[in-house]
Automatic annotation (TrEMBL), chain A:
Binding residues for Zn(2+): C200, C203, C294, C297
Encoding gene, per UniProt annotation: uba4
Catalysed conversion reaction: [molybdopterin-synthase sulfur-carrier protein]-C-terminal Gly-Gly + ATP + H(+) = [molybdopterin-synthase sulfur-carrier protein]-C-terminal Gly-Gly-AMP + diphosphate; [molybdopterin-synthase sulfur-carrier protein]-C-terminal Gly-Gly-AMP + S-sulfanyl-L-cysteinyl-[cysteine desulfurase] + AH2 = [molybdopterin-synthase sulfur-carrier protein]-C-terminal-Gly-aminoethanethioate + L-cysteinyl-[cysteine desulfurase] + A + AMP + 2 H(+)
Gene3D superfamilies reported in the protein's UniProt record: NAD(P)-binding Rossmann-like Domain (3.40.50.720), Rhodanese-like domain (3.40.250.10)
Subcellular location: Cytoplasm, Cytosol
Domain Rhodanese: 347-465
Protein name per UniProt: Adenylyltransferase and sulfurtransferase uba4
Cofactor note: Binds 1 zinc ion per subunit.
From TrEMBL, chain B:
Organism whose genome encodes this protein: Staphylotrichum tortipilum
This protein's record includes keyword Cytoplasm: yes
Protein keywords: Cytoplasm, Isopeptide bond, tRNA processing, Ubl conjugation pathway
Protein name per Swiss-Prot or TrEMBL: Ubiquitin-related modifier 1
InterPro entries reported for this sequence: Beta-grasp_dom_sf, Mopterin_synth/thiamin_S_b, Urm1
Entry GO CC: cytosol
Gene: URM1
Pathway stated in the Swiss-Prot or TrEMBL entry: tRNA modification; 5-methoxycarbonylmethyl-2-thiouridine-tRNA biosynthesis
Residues recorded as bearing 1-thioglycine in the entry: G111
SUPFAM superfamilies reported in the protein's UniProt record: MoaD/ThiS (SSF54285)
Task performed by this protein: Acts as a sulfur carrier required for 2-thiolation of mcm(5)S(2)U at tRNA wobble positions of cytosolic tRNA(Lys), tRNA(Glu) and tRNA(Gln). Serves as sulfur donor in tRNA 2-thiolation reaction by being thiocarboxylated (-COSH) at its C-terminus by the MOCS3 homolog UBA4. The sulfur is then transferred to tRNA to form 2-thiolation of mcm(5)S(2)U. Prior mcm(5) tRNA modification by the elongator complex is required for 2-thiolation. Also acts as a ubiquitin-like protein (UBL) that is covalently conjugated via an isopeptide bond to lysine residues of target proteins such as AHP1.
The record's account of how the chain is modified after translation: C-terminal thiocarboxylation occurs in 2 steps, it is first acyl-adenylated (-COAMP) via the hesA/moeB/thiF part of UBA4, then thiocarboxylated (-COSH) via the rhodanese domain of UBA4.
Family annotation (PANTHER family): RURM1 PROTEIN
Subcellular location: Cytoplasm
GO BP terms: protein urmylation; tRNA thio-modification; tRNA wobble uridine modification
Amino acid sequence: MGEGTRAGAPTNGTRNGHSRRLDDDEFDRYSRQMVVPGMGKEGQLRLINGRVLIIGAGGLGCPAAQYIAGAGVGTIGIVDGDVVEASNLHRQVGHATSRIGMLKVDSLITHLRGLNHLPTYIAHPFPLTPQNAADIIAGYDLVLDCTDNPATRYLISDVCVLLCKPLVSAASVQKSGQLIVLNCPPSPQGLVDGGPYAPCYRCCFRKPPPPSSLVSCGEAGIMGPVVGMMGVAQAGEAIKILASALHLPPTEPSANQNQNLHQPTLLIYTYDLDAAPGPYTFRALKMSSRKPSCPSCGAGSTLSLEGIRAGDPNYEQFCAVNTPRCVLPLSERVTPAEFHAARERGELPRHVVLDTREREHFSFGSIEGAVNVPFGRLLMKAAAVQRDGGEVRGVLPEGVLTQTAGEGGGEGVEQIFVVCRRGLDSQEAVEKLKELGLEEGGRRRIVDIKGGMKAWKEEVDPGFPYI
Amino acid sequence: MSDATEAAATIPITVDFSGGLEMLFDNQRRHAVDLPAADPGGKPATIVLLIDHLCKHLMKDPRTDMFVLDNHIRPGILVLINDADWELEGEEAYEIQPRDNILFVSTLHGG
């Protein structure tokens, strides 16, 4: 029956399954992919005997899961603790309007069963944590990282290294996407001699970016087809790896070198809203192999499953998840409710509201009379004034600060209220405006509206179109 | 094979930004850059000189810490030299060649 040199995943305990007959349902269902050169019955049986874990049932996980289920991977596990929201649906195509509020894992599995009832679906309806990661991942042959934060990405990679699981990793935000296959074929932690070996996530991305540089899909937005393309590509890689048994140690030592598996390609997709696809819409970048100095898979690595369970390394700290950037004293902050009440009582005759959100966010609505200078633009204008000199009031739109505070028959603006989306940028903006001297020796107050437009919606205007 | 002394003035290269970094460079992804062929000390131009040059001459946004931290490329940015990880090319010490393409990519985490 043509047992190949790589056939027989030793971990799934169904060796006999590799030479069995396909039943009629399987034969019909998978016929179009089985006739593709290189697939055949052998490749299909490897998929049927394969076990894939999809971590994250969102914009990457949904499209990835559809193709993995459609292709007939026999066991599909899905990890996610979130529930479906309406704002997910433009990209998370495994969910449905009728399933808003349902756990994402249950919603996605409902969809997948409709597509293909043959695989075994396993729901893990909670977030992946250092405590549960190893127990979950151990039950699968291959892992897809479809998560949305650096701390979980490092955790997944570390556990995959320790359990010798290949990892297909993708990420996407706004108008770009990235994809890379890691740890494939897996080699034992610490092995450097006789290499090169495939790298892990830490080999490629040594340190996480500082939290201040991170933007989430919620804040920066995300185009559905961009993240979808990356999720589908993850499924493509997963199917390829399982069907061709690339995740197993090769029978000939030179095989991996020939396939360049040890220097994986980082695929980058860059999408333009206002331009046709160009030569750099897709870029394929060559990454380096396992680093002997890697703290996870390298020669001196002390990483262990016991350590991870006990909180070492500390992923949250490593990625500094909750570090606030800047906190102003209370005297320079007001809550949206306080601001609104004072304004209603007529206590703020000469004030201006400066909204530092991006133009797109501002376009849906703002506090009445607010002027919009996006945060990045404000900093740029401030830097230009500080570098080249010029009128400090020019950092705000023309006409907003026409007069010095307290002058001109009491017409000058005496208070500037700064508001942003969630209350971080606005605090930095207050500091910056003060640094520029816009307080004018104390004659003008510059104040942060606490918690941004999110808090405004919660405290003042429940109907506000906050994004 | 032009005259070595003439060619010494600047090195023509292209510099690309991706993954959101273009935001710091006037929202433009590709820049043609004429890099001084040597640093003030007379040593051949390396990635170190390029980064300094980009911060001083190309970056419009004042948030240099989004690109450089403690005089090094900030964590979370990959540097690709002619489409290969700079670790394959000597990292910061790589000597820049005419017509090189240097790509700076911010790693993404969303999903």
